[in-house]
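Newbie here. two chains, one complex. Structure please?
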Amino acid sequence: MQDVARLANVSIATVSFTVNNSKPVSPATRARVEAAMQELGFRRNAVGRALASKRTHILALLYPALQHRFRGTVVDFFTSAASTASERGYNLVLWPASNDSELDELTSTGLVDGVLLMEVQVDDPRVEQLTASRTPFALIGRTGDPSALDYVDIDFENTVAAAIEHLAQLGHTSIGLLDGGVGRGALRGYAPVVRTRESFAQEMAARGLTAFSFTCDENPAAGREAAATLMNEAPGMTALLLMNEHAGPGLVTGLHRLGMSVPADLSILSLASSREMAAMTDPDLSVLSAPSIELGRRGVELLIDQLDGGNQHERQSLVMCAFEPGNSTAPPRRAPPSE
Amino acid sequence: MQDVARLANVSIATVSFTVNNSKPVSPATRARVEAAMQELGFRRNAVGRALASKRTHILALLYPALQHRFRGTVVDFFTSAASTASERGYNLVLWPASNDSELDELTSTGLVDGVLLMEVQVDDPRVEQLTASRTPFALIGRTGDPSALDYVDIDFENTVAAAIEHLAQLGHTSIGLLDGGVGRGALRGYAPVVRTRESFAQEMAARGLTAFSFTCDENPAAGREAAATLMNEAPGMTALLLMNEHAGPGLVTGLHRLGMSVPADLSILSLASSREMAAMTDPDLSVLSAPSIELGRRGVELLIDQLDGGNQHERQSLVMCAFEPGNSTAPPRRAPPSE
């Protein structure tokens, strides 16, 4: 240890902080210490260290494989979460666990210090399981009653209200919602869609607007098929909220093939998606962008607050989606018939 | 241990196999053993177990954050790799490591039994680093000289040849390649693009065809811009190989806006992409689909062969992309001028 400190030109305390991640160390200092350790053949053995400290400094972002498409936004928040963890001396890994026993295996091993849940369901059995196992955890998302939990989530309620406000301002009175479904079986109750549907129904009713609701699978072929369904079942509908980004490109293509123009015949506003996904179509979709980077960062901070005994961050917070205009919303072609 | 065996109605040996993942156990048996362990409050402590056995049964799929877009195909092979690992009694996690010191941290901790590399570069410094650290590893991809390594990779050489054959059969003699670049700085030499460029140049020269080469960033906006570049710089080009799936939707949109029709004015054949990405555009792109599930499965098998001393699988193998016809290739509008 002394040799490492001498070679790296730092104090022994700094070497200890670096090795044990017990205090923040500047990247330059960390690099010097690590170079010295490597030169001297000094190897940390994290398994031994973990046994001594009962800590591994590994966090798992639980990935429920194949529940929903791994969206572009999820990649962004994984990347953001991983870099936030790294800054705080932790490693964040994406850990596939699609059933109870896989999650039990994860929590019973002692190999991770804490868990971040994503793709949260309204009644999420993982919450009870993690609570029972006394594993520190935080949610990127919310259950139906998250009052006792640490979470950061998209503010779906206000995002949907803002979306409807945008379309109502343009003069639309007949508006649909196309989502990707709430899941089936053990994965039912996908909270983002459940909340979006509820908020949509409430807000539309409160404004006295005509609401339609549609669901299709999360891929472009399903989006193409949905175009015909929309036009057949709701011919008077002039605007659509899209809560299914993978169906978007197919939807626009399908509408064009039916001779419908976006936005002249149907305005489309994409929810909780990204500028990049919105640019996949022609015209570009107007989008309320998911705050993915913010979600990843705050989720990790909440978890590390629990682990390190800090209490610096709001334990429950909601983040709005930001409006990024594209070219897919406009006033309806014909004024709605007066009543 | 005896109590667990009695409650689960299995032998003590089976409990041991289940706990230590030392032999395959049927899912039903595993479930019974785990239920019994849980009921009896019997908890495996994997950290202790790891120290005893020097094994954690965790495999890391290294994720070099942000080098290239996290493609749909990568999601497929992560999912496939994770489920293959699970069948063999291992956990596969996606581990972000974007620089030498993060990789060094991973290998020096003893927390993973082995590493799978993805997004491999022609001269990949991680190979040397893993070799030096004596960490078992396998590649999904290939370096410039992979003769001493365990790998599975796409057969880019024959895939490119098949793509050119398809277009040549249709009568195209002037063909371009649009790729996403080979990376910069420490991430230069992205092997899939390097190999595709080389194979393209060789095959086109061997056939005496006119070749053009273009690069744009991996997003739809860059694809739109590329449309104009293509038409300006290679007005006589009638077909394009696309090795940049994220630029595809923008490229098609950009061509349409320039008054060009796909495939009448330009045939497009997408390489190493997927049916789903190909369905994002109108018309659907014809595609040579990446064998993602096969890559994920074989990569994990190679690594576990090293760990468990098995030798059941081909240590080096290449897998072709499969042709899936869309509507984006056709004979050129005008026959090429005779010479």
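Moderator note: The first helix of chain B runs from residue 2 to 8. The two ends of chain B are 83 Å apart (CA to CA). Thread marked as resolved.
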